[in-house]
Amino acid sequence: MDRIELVIGDITMLHVDAIVNAANRTLLGGGGVDGAIHRAAGTSLLEECRGLGGCPTGEARITKGYHLPAKYVIHTVGPVWHGGNQNEPALLRACYLSSLRLAEEKRLQTIAFPAISTGVYGYPKEKAAQVAVQAVKEFFEAHTEPEKVIFVCYDEDNVQIYSSYLD
Ligand code: APR
User: Fold this and answer.
1) Distances (CA, A) of 71 to 45, 98, 134
2) What residue's CA is closest to ligand 1, atom 32?
3) Each residue of 67-112: pLDDT tens digit?
4) Which of 3, 56, 111, 118, CA to CA, is 20 to 30 A from 162?
5) Cα 117 to middle of ligand 1, angstroms
6) What atom in ligand 1 is closest to the CA of residue 30?
7) Dihedral, CA of residue 130, residue 138, residue 116 and residue 155, to nearest 10
């Protein structure tokens, strides 16, 4: 699948059409990748987010990228891991599909995802990567846009896990 790439590093540095933010339901910023994206984008991002009125888990919202090299930020809210019996896999899958649909609607060509929910939200990294790769591959079977998905790994665990899944 040459439409899927793996990159190691900081998602805020990527010159892509959209980077995906692992946000919380308020969309008002936080730690982790959410904090990094807001720091790099600047306060205008928070201003735009304030006007969105939050986002339910599994859905996605799009904003401009402001001072980021990425044109847009797609904010999605992953599930908090509670052991796997509270619909977490379906909600995580929905994050990837909702974000891809938004990118398609905007005719974006490149979209970069962090490992949603695998940090503060505690989703097991192996299981999360399986959901992520499966969702993207299924979306690509039926859609020609976006042209490319980049999985961004920021920690060593995810680098190993995504590399094994994508080989
Ligand atoms: N670039 C790419 N990936 C990053 C970066 C970065 N700059 N910073 C962190 N990550 C990775 C983490 O290593 C992890 O694999 O993003 C993944 C998701 O971790 P979190 O950012 O903790 O997100 P999540 O687990 O979805 O929890 C979301 O955390 O920051 C708050 O406001 C956010 O409440 C929300 C919650």
Assistant:
1) 12, 18, 26
2) 30
3) 999 999 999 999 999 999 999 999 999 999 999 999 999 999 999 9
4) 56
5) 7
6) 32
7) 50
Strand 110-113 and strand 18-23: the pairing is parallel
Each residue of 38-50: pLDDT tens digit? Answer: 999 999 999 999 9
| Residue 131 Cα to chain centre, angstroms | 12
Mean pLDDT over each residue of the chain, to the nearest integer: 97
Tokens 């990567």, residue?
129
- Is the whole model's pTM more than 0.90, yes or no? yes
Closest alpha carbon to 23 in 83, 95, 72, 82: 95
Q: Which residues are 77's β-sheet partners?
A: 23
Q: Which amino acid residue places its CA nearest to atom 8 of ligand 1? A: 33
Q: 106 C-alpha to center of ligand 1: Å?
A: 24
Atom of ligand 1 nearest to the CA of 29: 32
> Residue 1: pLDDT above 90?
no
Q: Which residue has the tokens 């401009």?
A: 64
Start-to-end C-alpha separation, the chain: 10
DSSP class of residue 81 equals P
Give the catalytic positions in this structure. 34
What's the 64 CA to ligand 1 centre distance in angstroms? 19
